[in-house]
Each structure stands twice: as C-alpha cells, then as structure tokens.
UniProtKB/TrEMBL annotation:
This is VOC family protein. It holds the Pfam family Glyoxalase. The keyword Iron does not apply. NCBIfam families: PRK11478.1 (NF008551). The lineage of its organism: Bacteria, Bacillati, Cyanobacteriota, Cyanophyceae, Nostocales. Keywords: Metal-binding. Residues 5-128 form the VOC domain. It comes from Nostoc edaphicum CCNP1411. GO terms for molecular function: metal ion binding.
Amino acid sequence: MKTTGIHHVAIICSDYERSKKFYVETLGFSIIEETFRAERNSYKLDLRVGESAQIELFSFPNPPQRFSSPEACGLRHLAFKVDDLEKTVDYLKSQGVETENIRIDEITSKKFTFFKDPDNLPLEIYEN
C-alpha cells in the first residue's frame, strides 16, 4: 500500500454551531462544503486546513462521551503546523482560548503547546 498523505480527520461535536464558529472563525479554517443529512439529523462540515488537509466536522444527536486526555488509548491529539508559535498563542488568547505553557520538543527542539476545542478535544500547535 502506498499513501500520499492524510486526506482528513473526522471530529464529532456536541454543539454544531459552537464548534463551527470555533473552527471557522477562531482557527480560520475555510468551509469547503456544508451538508445537512436529514435522515441522520446530522451536519457534515468539510473544512480546509492548510493546502491539502481537511477536517470533517460532524454533528449527531446525543453522541457518546469520549475520554479526551492526551494520554488515553486511541487518537492522542490533532496537531497543526504554524510558522510563529508565540504569535499564534497570542491570537488564541485574544479569542478567549486557553493554551498550555509553550514547551520545547526534546527530540526536534521545536516549540509547541496544546489547547482544547469546544468539546475538550486536545489540539496542538507545533512550530515549523
């Protein structure tokens, strides 16, 4: 099997409008397509992340809760590349988003930090 990259990451949210606002207005991802699926009473929002990656944001009635700790078994977190970590942290804080302290990756010596989406999903920003 030969892959050419990651196409998308799917996220199920508890409050569609709140999460849509967070990912579009706060994080600045652009909308590719928004679809309401009446048979599932569910929205699917395709978002552009960078030049080629996507997030599929889903809403479902009464989704089950999931552990969100970065150390829980399963998907650990979603990380976004940024050119200037401090500037990005300052922007997130200006939007009311709390971030952890900036850390240095002991392997790459790159700066990174974590924050959470409206459903407590751990998100990382990692400096190029």
